[in-house]
Write a structure and sequence with these properties.
Blueprint lengths: L1 H7 L1 H11 L8 H9 L4 H34 L4 H14 L13 H10 L4 H28 L1
Length: about 150
C-alpha cells in the first residue's frame, strides 16, 4: 500500500490527508516526507496536504453540526452530564482550541465538538486551516534541509 501511495504522489497525499482528518486513525505526514525526499515542490506539497486535511476536518465538523445529537447520544453514548462537562471544558478554551486540531488523538474530536457546539464555519475554517498549515509547513521546513544536505 505504501508503494502505491508514493507512486500516486500529490493526489494520494490529498486523499490520505483528507482521511487522516476524519475519525479514521491515519497519518499523512509520512507521505509528505516521502514526496519531499523525491523532489516534490515543498510549497505545493504543503498546500495539497493542508487542503486535504482541512477539508477532512470540515467533514468531521459537519458530522458534528448535522449529526450531533444522534452521534453523541446513540453512537458515542454521551449522556447529558458528560456532554455538559465537555461543553464546560471547551468553553474554557473556546474555539481557539481548534488551532490544536492537528494534534493526534485530540484533534479530530476537537473538530467534531466544534460542529456539535456550532462554532461559526468561517472561524472554524480559519483556525483549523491555520493550525494544519503551520504543522505541515513546519514539517516541510524541518525536513527540507535534511533532504538537501
Amino acid at each position: 500500500m505504501e508503494a502505491f501511495l508514493t507512486e500516486q504522489g500529490l493526489p494520494a497525499l490529498f486523499v490520505l490527508s483528507f482521511l487522516a482528518a476524519t475519525l479514521l486513525p491515519l497519518g499523512s505526514e509520512w507521505l509528505l516526507l516521502v514526496l519531499l525526499s523525491r523532489g516534490e515542490a515543498p510549497l505545493l506539497a504543503v498546500a495539497v496536504a493542508t487542503c486535504g486535511n482541512t477539508l477532512g476536518a470540515i467533514t468531521t465538523y459537519l458530522i458534528g453540526l448535522y449529526g450531533g445529537p444522534l452521534l453523541a447520544e446513540r453512537v458515542l453514548r454521551i449522556d447529558a452530564a458528560a456532554r455538559q462537562r465537555a461543553e464546560a471544558r471547551y468553553a474554557r478554551f473556546g474555539s481557539w482550541s481548534l488551532l490544536l486540531s492537528w494534534l493526534p488523538i485530540i484533534g479530530d474530536p476537537l473538530c467534531l465538538v466544534g460542529g456539535l457546539l456550532r462554532v461559526p464555519a468561517g472561524r472554524f475554517v480559519l483556525l483549523v486551516g491555520s493550525g494544519k498549515l503551520l504543522r505541515y509547513a513546519a514539517l516541510a521546513l524541518l525536513a527540507t534541509p535534511a533532504l538537501t544536505g
